[in-house]
Each structure stands twice: as structure tokens, then as C-alpha cells.
């Protein structure tokens, strides 16, 4: 009698139904290679562990909310040789997360700030960490909406507990009250408890200017910068524009005639 029909309900009860995906192949392999029962069982368990690991990885990637799948493997360090590759590869170990430190990535538009931030988030997910990528505008909009529905504390607590929070485009838009208070509260909750990556077009010396309340801004930035790693990007923009196509000869002659008329 074939054991498969009897196995299916039992595997489902044990939440091991994924084993069915490779059971037939592994069973044939065990017969061909005359495997011991324990070796056959070990292969099935390894398959199940690999499946669950991949499923958790895929779930974390979806929850992270990355704009796109940016990794360090596809970042062109040669485009701007001044970028400190050694520093970024050291950050890729995610040792800064053990230190509960922030990573601040600053530089002009198009120099790869968002790419590197998302790539570091990808590295954290590979290590089994939960990551959330968001922009300053989206983050503050969510907190404002939560305040309107009396769920601010719950939303703030969720943001405070994520292993790695990535805030993109800090200071791109000036903060208004109570946005500056929201940022202050969030940074305060995460301070020395969780790591945060922040990208900005502003120089670090200009960050306080984004806050309407200068005292609140000073306190917030002081917490952000304490023990933080700063990555300064400079050079050409990766966002190159394509040259416009040259007009055909007939089109040029047509324009000339039109201008004479």
C-alpha cells in the first residue's frame, strides 16, 4: 500500500505538509542510493527547514516595504570611487544593530542613499531581523492618521519595536507641529533600544533647521547622532538622463519653413 494518503492528514496535523513537496523525489533518491532510514529522514527535515527559512525571508521582505529589491551586490561602487566601500561593507555585517546605533546616510540627490539604506535593510533581513522602510512623509502621515483614530500610541509602539527602521528623505520637507513632536517621540522610544537608518539630502549641521521648535530639534538630533555611524556620499548622480533624439532632416527643414512663414 502506498503510504502517501495516510501521511497527508498526519503531516497537516503536525504542520509539516510542506514535506509533501519533496517526499516523492527524496523517496526515489533513498531507494536509488540505498539510504539508511535516518539519512532519508534527515533529508526531509533539511528540506522543511529550508522551506520555512525561505518563507520567513519572503514574508520579512514583503513587510519591509522596500521600494524595490536593492542589494549591495548590485550597487556600482566604481561609479563614484570616493564612496567609502569598506565602511558600507562593515555596516553590512549589521554589527551596528547589536550596538543599537543609528546609521546616517547623507549626500546630494542621486548618489545612492536610498539604495544603500535598503541594501543594509536587506542584509538585516538575511540575518532574521524585522525591517521597515518608509519615507519621512509617509511615516508622519501614518502617525497623523493614527492620532485621528485614537490609535497613535499603538502605532508608535509598533514603530518603536521594529528591529530596524529606515527613514528615507529626512528633512526633504520642513516639519510642522506636531510632526516634530512625533519624530521626537519615535526617536526617543527607539533610542539605545533599536537601530534606525536615516537618509537625507541635508548636511548633518542642517538637520536641526528642519524642526520648527529648535529646542525639540536639538534634543532629537542629539539622540540620533549619539554613537551613530555617518556615511557621506558625494559625486555624480546615478540618475542619468538619456539624450534627446536628434530631429530628422525633413523635420528640421519643416521647422525652418514654418519659422520663415
From TrEMBL:
Keyword Nucleotide-binding among UniProt keywords: yes
* Keywords for this protein: ATP-binding, Nucleotide-binding
Question: Which Pfam family, any one, appears in the UniProt record?
Answer: IstB_IS21
Segments forming domain AAA+ ATPase? 99-234
> SUPFAM superfamilies this protein is in?
P-loop containing nucleoside triphosphate hydrolases
What are the BP-aspect GO terms?
DNA replication
| InterPro entries linked | AAA+_ATPase, DNAC/IstB-like, IstB, IstB_ATP-bd, P-loop_NTPase
> Region labeled Disordered — which residues?
240-261
- Family per similarity comment: Belongs to the IS21/IS1162 putative ATP-binding protein family.
- This chain's protein is named ATP-binding protein
What is the organism field in this record? Answer: Desulfolithobacter dissulfuricans
Organism ancestry? Bacteria, Pseudomonadati, Thermodesulfobacteriota, Desulfobulbia, Desulfobulbales
